């Protein structure tokens, strides 16, 4: 039972493992740690001022979320997102995220947070900073689907966010299009705010699939059709 004094008590500090996990995740999703880069526990610990134990635990957690690959011989490395994996992630996004946004629009969800994040993308540091753009891109998309009314659907999409962001950052390394994508975001948000659920759904699905089409050809192990089409299928 919480007393009035405990209600004012500050939240507990983040654990060392959580601190390391969040720091390494942001470094990966900003491109600071590149695909295939080895993450040496002692070096990461020295960089963040912690021992190897929380680093080891954090890397295992990141391996579980698909951002890090663990190997007996190589240790932990930043996951290399190949074309097959990227298609799998984006195929699931294209199935679920537009549906979630359609439901959010039909329920009359408030898209004020999405509007605020979009303004930051267009006018703030994110307009020129890939690391900032990566974070705000994730926040914008979540603000669109968060009001869908199905907590399990939100949870599934949240679970995809890190891997989707890894595809995005890899793609921006191939084709730095995040500034141009703001116009697509604006069109999606405008449709949502007008209450046009079907248009918002369509524009978001096109936004997701068009991005992968722009970068899939340069991802390792790109998919091919029987006729040799390097785009493959979605």
TrEMBL record:
Residues 14-81 form the HTH gntR-type domain. Keywords: DNA-binding, Transcription, Transcription regulation. SUPFAM superfamilies: GntR ligand-binding domain-like (SSF48008), Winged helix' DNA-binding domain (SSF46785). The keyword Transmembrane helix does not apply. It holds the Pfam family FCD. Coiled coil: none annotated. It comes from the Bacteria. InterPro entries: GntR_C (IPR011711), TF_FadR/GntR_C (IPR008920), Tscrpt_reg_HTH_GntR (IPR000524), WH-like_DNA-bd_sf (IPR036388), WH_DNA-bd_sf (IPR036390). Gene3D superfamilies: GntR ligand-binding domain-like, Winged helix-like DNA-binding domain superfamily/Winged helix DNA-binding domain. This is GntR family transcriptional regulator. The keyword Nucleotidyltransferase does not apply. It comes from Amycolatopsis melonis. CDD domains: WHTH_GntR.
